[in-house]
Amino acid sequence: MYVTTVKLADQVSRAEGVQYGTLYTQGAPTQAQHNGLHVTLRPNGEVTSWIERAKPEPKAKPAVERVLIGTATLADGSTTAKIHRLADDHYEADVFANGTRLDTLVAAGHPAYGEHNGLRVALHPDGELTSWVDPTPMP
Predict the structure, then answer these.
(1) Could you please report the per-residue DSSP string of the chain?
(2) How far apart are CA 86 and CA 65, in angstroms?
(3) DSSP string, 56-77
(4) Is the alpha carbon torsion for 12, 18, 21, 25 positive or negative?
């Protein structure tokens, strides 16, 4: 039995016409939601509705360009590192041995450290790279 037409919160939908669903109530409010439009039907026939606020799209971060600023031979004499600048206080160093990348150190506001077979490497947030070889223990 048709009782009345109710304008909903989105100012376009009505509680008649294209059917997205049917609400029934028997002594307690019943609710429905469709594309962010929320509708409540109360036992006395009152219809209320509200629209969810759209969540803002996340702002796209600008693309970070990775700029090669130098290549260094490390303390063992055979390992190399390619140092890249991404931003102020953000550098990365790719560490290579025999053409194979062993590690990537990322210094973003704090130093980054790596180790490979006794070779120690430190990349500082200003782009400075240091390396040393652990001393061989005495027999």
Answers:
(1) ------B-TTSS-BSSSS-S-----SSS-EEEEETTEEEEE-TTS-EEEEEPPPPPPPPPPPPPP-EEEEEEE-TTSSEEEEEEEEETTEEEEEEEETTEEEEEEEEESS-EEEEETTEEEEE-TTS-EEEEEPPPPP-
(2) 6
(3) PPPPPPPPPP-EEEEEEE-TTS
(4) positive
- In which residue are the tokens 């290549």 written? 71
- Give pLDDT tens digits along the chain (139 positions): 566 777 777 766 655 556 667 788 888 888 888 888 888 888 888 888 888 887 888 888 777 899 999 999 999 999 999 999 999 999 999 999 999 999 999 999 999 999 998 999 999 999 999 999 998 776 6
Assigned token pair, 15: 């509680």
Please state the length of the chain.
Answer: 139
Query: Position 63: which residue type?
Result: A
Q: Is the pTM of this model over 0.85?
A: no
